[in-house]
Design a protein that fits this description.
Elements: H1 7-21, H2 25-48, H3 58-70, H4 80-105, E1 112-114, E2 131-133, H5 134-147, H6 149-160, H7 165-172, H8 176-195
Antiparallel strand pairs: 1-2
């Protein structure tokens, strides 16, 4: 589904984001009302790729991500796409923090996810070979970001926000062909890094 683009909602969200940047509390409440459903869809997609025993619910993930978004002091919101890209980063951080806490409680048991699920073919790892550890993915993404920040952002948008190639391309301001090539390269690189 991705980021919906109703003709009259796009500009309204962008204006509310700018007002939010300037500290307008009314804008914050109205913005939350307008983007909440999309954030819940992002959260559901991100959680579908998690292990079935995951304890976070979409609502909790959205609320945690929103709190982190709200803590972005001095953020200069430029567009709706930028907002949802940053929201996907915040969801990633919440999920990684949650996985670290669970790993600590379970003494080393990793949270298993699958890279294949980003294309909608899996809801959870079907076999142990399909599964990757969320913390290993986070570490690999951090390494990728030092080599190619755009590919790392693309992975975040595809994996954590659940955006399609066209939606991610629009959010990054690149062509669909570029996003498609970058996605193929990033996935191959991540698989190789995590298998090493």
């Amino acid at each position: 589904m991705g980021i919906p683009t109703p003709p009259n909602g796009v500009h309204e969200v962008t204006e509310l984001l700018r007002a939010w940047s300037e500290g307008d509390e009314d804008a914050t409440e109205e913005l939350a009302r307008l983007v909440y459903d999309q954030l819940r869809r992002q959260a559901r997609r991100a959680l579908r790729r998690e292990n079935q025993g995951h304890t976070l619910q979409p609502t909790a993930l959205v609320h945690e991500a929103w709190l982190r978004l709200d803590d972005q002091q001095g953020a200069s919101w430029e567009s709706r796409g930028q907002f949802f890209a940053v929201a996907s980063q915040m969801m990633r951080r919440v999920l990684v923090d949650h996985a670290r806490a669970r790993r600590t409680l379970k003494r080393g048991a990793g949270v298993q996810i699958t890279l294949g699920a980003v294309d909608g073919e899996l809801a959870a790892p079907e076999t142990p070979a399909d599964a990757v550890d969320l913390l290993a993915l986070d570490d690999a993404l951090a390494r990728l970001a030092t080599l190619d920040p755009q590919k790392a952002r693309l992975v975040e948008l595809r994996y954590f926000a659940g955006l399609s190639i066209p939606e991610a391309a629009a959010a990054l301001g690149v062509s669909q062909a570029t996003a498609g090539r970058d996605w193929a390269v990033a996935r191959a690189w991540l698989r190789r890094e995590m298998d090493a």
